[in-house]
Amino acid sequence: MEKELFKKIDTYKQTVIDLQTNMIACPAVSPHQGGKGENAKAAYLLSVLKKMKFDEVYVINIKDSKAQDGVRPNIVAKYYGENKQKTLWVMAHMDVVPPGDLALWKTDPFKAVVKGDKIYGRGSEDNQQGLVSGLLAVKAMMDCNVRPPCTYALLLNADEEIGSTYGIDAILKKHGKTFGKNDAFLVPDGGNPEGTMVEIAEKNMLWVKFTVFGRQTHASTPHSGNNAHRASAHLVVKLGDLYKKFNKKDKLFAPESTSTFEPTKREANVPNVNTIPGTDVFYLDCRVLPCYKNADVLAEIAKIAKSIEKQFKVKVKVETPINENSKPTDKNAAVVKLTQAAVKAVYKNAPRPMGVGGGTVGAYLRNQGYPAVVYSKLDDMAHQPNEYSSIKNTLGDAKVFALIALNFK
Ligand SMILES: [Zn+2]
After folding, report:
1. Is-catalytic flag, 330?
2. Cβ within 8 Å of residue 236, ≥6 positions away
3. Fewer beta carbons within 10 angstroms: which end of the chain, N or C?
4. pLDDT digits (tens, 9 = 90+) for 187-198
């Protein structure tokens, strides 16, 4: 049966170009980044989906006062399987990031340009390539009159690029009944050019803000104050001990196979050279292997901060702008095994389960207990000027998703 579907998918090249051209013409930049949001793109996609043989198409609107029409649209389109109690979801996002510096673009970011296998335009790869693959996989089933064993559904989200507040996060929190407890997710929004990365886990995200309080004074009389900058610098160095304390390795996360604890942003303190700063603020970006809990890292951080307070007679305030533990998807979950097998069958390569540094939409799903695989074969053009997608990869991944759907029981 898959041969018939694959043959059908090979005839969809012009469909890929048409879908991409129409979507690229709708700049779905978030209204929180000065854009118009997803409404126009969603209207176009609804017109496409309604002409197809879906059994159900509906929109989950999430209120956003900044958005056109006051809502951000999330589209669900279902093609029933023999078993309607279980659904394989392909989740892709409609929003795009702004084009950035236009001088770096060789073509208009919101007008599709096709050159050989490549379609140029903002959003062509992130995330329209995955969206089109997911759509063509089910179109092939429809065109060949094939019903999959379980329901196959598209979930086209709003707001992925800046935190999913009006997208998957809101759907899970307020519309949780959309999903069944046996459902599984494919998220075609990340991968590598070889198509070998089957992403099933991410590190816990932990961003820590440190505010060190000393006492400001003139730089010529340090004894009359207490230099917060110096204490802060010692604290930065001492936090390096976290690498020794949380030193487990997990091969899933190669090449960055340990937890990481990196000092990053530093806020400006005093504007002039001859003042000793009384306050100093910096941040630590921690990506913690899921075998640890963020709370354990924070307990260790508290100890280190205390030792610095004692040594330098300062106060250290510790805050966590982001603190999210992450549950990996089991590498033996059916959807993981099926993805590996399907990728191998289509591309004749050696796909393997992997973990990433964190901060993907996969975490929202995994934390709710749904198995979720992030997979695409792509050139990693997301957010770059002259973003493009590959027609070949789009069709190849459509075959991958169709094959997974045929075997997802
Ligand atoms: Zn994306």
Report:
1. no
2. 263, 282
3. N
4. 999 999 999 999
Q: Do residues 335 and 185 touch, judged by C-beta distance below 8 A? A: yes
Q: Examine the residue annotation and report whether 161 is marked as an active-site residue of this protein.
A: no
Angle of CA points 10, 183, 149, to nearest 5° = 50
Q: Which of 160, 183, 324, 379 is catalytic?
A: 160
Give Cα separations from 50 to 18, 43, 46 (angstroms): 16, 11, 6
42-92 pLDDT tens trace: 999 999 999 999 999 999 999 999 998 899 999 999 999 999 999 999 999
Task: Report how far ligand 1's centroid is from the alpha carbon of 206 (Å).
Answer: 21
Number of residues that this document lists for the chain: 409
DSSP letters, 66-125, are: TSGGGEEEEEEEEE--SEEEEEEEEEEE--B-----GGG-SS-TTS-EEETTEEESTTTT
Q: Which of 38, 64, 95, 387 is catalytic?
A: 95
Going by their DSSP bridges, the two strands 260-266 and 279-288 should be labelled as antiparallel
pLDDT at 163: 87
Q: What does the alpha-carbon distance between residue 75 and residue 61 come to, in Å, rounded to a whole number? A: 9
DSSP 274: T
Grouping H, G, I as helix, E, B as strand and the rest as coil, residue 19 is helix
Please tell me the distance between residue 273's alpha carbon and the centre of ligand 1 in angstroms: 43
Going from the Cα of 2 to the center of ligand 1, the distance in angstroms, rounded, reads 28
Task: List the chain domain ranges.
Answer: 2-202+326-407, 204-324
Burial of 341 (0-12, 13-18, 19+ CB in 10 A): middle
- Containing 172, the helix (H) or strand (E) segment is helix 168-174
Nearest CA to 312 out of 283, 281, 278, 285 is that of: 278
Do residues 81 and 152 lie in contact, with contact meaning Cβ atoms separated by under 8 Å?
Answer: yes
CB atoms within 10 A of CB 218: 11
The dihedral sign for the CA sequence 294, 295, 298, 303: negative
Domain covering 2-202+326-407 assigned CATH 3.40.630.10 in the classification: yes
CATH number of 204-324: 3.30.70.360
Q: Is 138:152 a contact under the CB 8 Å cutoff?
A: yes
